[in-house]
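Ticket #4471: structure export looks truncated?
Reporter: QA, pipeline team
Priority: medium

Steps to reproduce: submit the single chain below to the structure queue and open the exported record.
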Amino acid sequence: MNFYKELELILEAKSPHVKIELFGTFYNVYKSGQVDFEKEYKTKNFDQPSYVHLCKIVPPQDVPRRSNLTTKDGQINLLHAIAHIEYSAIDLALDGAYRFTGLPKQYYDDWIEVADDEIRHFLSLEKLLNELGAKYGDVEVHNALFEASQKTQTLLERMAVVPRYLEANGLDATPMILTKLQKLPKNEMIEKIIRTLHVILDEEIDHVKKGDVWFNYACAENGVSNELYFEIINKYYPQGFLRPKNLNITARKEAGFSCKELNTMAKGNVC
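Actual output as written to the record:
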């Protein structure tokens, strides 16, 4: 089995379950060591996300809000929003393995493993959506994560932006969602959502940590300081860090952020 060609087919799969089935076959072969890394493979630039035929894409401000989480609609909107992040994250992990060739094998091991985690997260959320009588594709979505992959075409920028900014923002946001859920009257669905989000939060720390390792690798390869991180983030996200007062300091430190970085993000001494 050819590594890059197979990832290209998986990335282009329009159906989540076709994508997941193709990945499962690929991952079993990959773990057995029976894949060939093609020499000088010419990767594609994808001009639209793989979910374009499944989901209605709208600007981020037009995605339905999940204001009342005690209602079925509120829970569907919440689960769908997170499922969309996880589905987008499958393609982001796969694209990271596909797009950047000639790297140490551990790099590919890491991002293929991340893709496998994201698939598991997506399936868990999809199951809860199904229990509520909904499915992925029922709610409008934005394509901000896909746009981030389009913009970041070097390893240095991709590792700074995707795991160390976008995914790390999730380390801050998920505890806030959990706090809100834990204040609600308890029922079976709320409990299931809470358990699922705890699993996702714990495993996303490792994903951000992998990004930290390979960001520092890219800095060393390019002969630049890792302090370039803030310059890269400001280039693409001049608004800066979305929740400076709600940084998950413990999780971010575990994921590789330094106290100096955390103090800069928080604009104060938090570490």
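Status: closed, not a bug. The export was complete when the record was re-opened. Leaving a note from the reviewer for reference: The mean pLDDT is 95.
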